[in-house]
């Protein structure tokens, strides 16, 4: 099956239904994957959340209609899914910099936002080291905080979390660690739906275990699953973030796997990240399409 062709069929469906209700289960069926996986993939490939893309496309179409017809603002608001003319006007002005009435003028500057399609670009043959690991159910035991998602650079909220743990804490956690990936881990879970940069997720620092966990630690149950495990070696965090991007832009579209929606795990070889050949592993729960 041509995964790229299926994704573009889903995009055509979205485009054809911008003036009505978009059935995201149908989008997923056309793309031959789950809703969760499609939205996650779309965000990584396009740089926009799916909801933001749809919002911008609708407002671009509305601008065109205002310039080329006598349509009423209230009718456009209803057509493109807004509760009231006021909410439509606020959204329109936020994108275009002018209100709908001003947009009717011929000399006004408006934002174009063309429909999006995806194509395969062949690049240099960069190898990606990965393996598929089957794991029984386990749990993550450690500390948890709701933090902001950051795709590039250092996330200072993570530094704050690490500073909360004492040497005694690390010793206790490592004693609990009894299944792969072993050692202290960073675990990301419960992302907001579109997983756009700046949105929220639950971040854990802890260990993978099947042991009884003392009450002072927060526990995250993890279901049995297959896991795609990727190795990143290089300057931290750039090499790691480059591998993350390649997983979604290069590996997933051709792998035959999709996301389960479970937690994603990062294993780092040590606390000292200064080595130019620093090693990390990314563990992502997957399922065969």
Automatic annotation (TrEMBL):
Domain HTH araC/xylS-type: 8-106
Domain of life: Bacteria
InterPro entries: AraC_E-bd, Cass2, Homeodomain-like_sf, HTH_AraC, HTH_AraC-typ_CS, MarA-like, Reg_factor_effector_dom_sf
Keywords of this entry: DNA-binding, Transcription, Transcription regulation
SMART domains registered for this protein in UniProt: AraC_E_bind, HTH_ARAC
Matches recorded under PANTHER family: RIGHT ORIGIN-BINDING PROTEIN
Full protein name: Helix-turn-helix domain-containing protein
GO molecular function annotations of the record: DNA-binding transcription factor activity; sequence-specific DNA binding
């Amino acid at each position: 099956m041509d995964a790229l062709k299926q994704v573009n069929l889903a995009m055509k469906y979205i485009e054809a239904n911008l003036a009505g209700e978009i059935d995201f289960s149908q989008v997923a069926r056309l793309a031959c994957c789950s809703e969760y996986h499609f939205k996650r993939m779309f965000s990584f490939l396009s740089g926009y959340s799916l909801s933001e893309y749809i919002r911008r496309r609708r407002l671009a179409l509305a601008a065109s209609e205002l310039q080329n017809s006598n349509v009423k603002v209230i009718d456009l608001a209803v057509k493109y899914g807004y509760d009231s003319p006021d909410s439509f006007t606020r959204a329109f002005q936020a994108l275009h910099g002018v209100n709908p009435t001003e947009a009717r003028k011929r000399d006004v500057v408006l934002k174009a936002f063309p429909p999006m399609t995806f194509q395969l670009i062949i690049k240099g043959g960069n190898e990606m080291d990965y393996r598929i690991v089957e794991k029984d159910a386990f749990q993550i035991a450690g500390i948890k905080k709701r933090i902001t998602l950051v795709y590039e650079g250092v996330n200072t909220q993570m530094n704050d979390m690490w500073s909360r743990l004492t040497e005694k804490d690390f010793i206790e956690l490592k004693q609990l660690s009894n299944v792969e990936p072993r050692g202290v881990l960073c675990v990301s879970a419960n992302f907001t739906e579109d997983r756009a940069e700046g949105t929220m997720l639950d971040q854990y620092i802890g260990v993978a275990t099947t042991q009884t966990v003392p009450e002072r630690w927060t526990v995250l149950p993890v279901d049995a699953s297959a896991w795609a495990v990727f190795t990143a070696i290089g300057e931290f965090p750039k090499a790691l973030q480059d591998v993350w991007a390649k997983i979604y832009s290069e590996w997933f579209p051709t792998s035959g796997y999709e996301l389960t929606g479970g937690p994603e795990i990062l294993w780092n070889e040590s606390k000292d990240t200064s080595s130019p050949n620093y090693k990390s592993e990314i563990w992502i729960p997957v399922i065969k399409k």
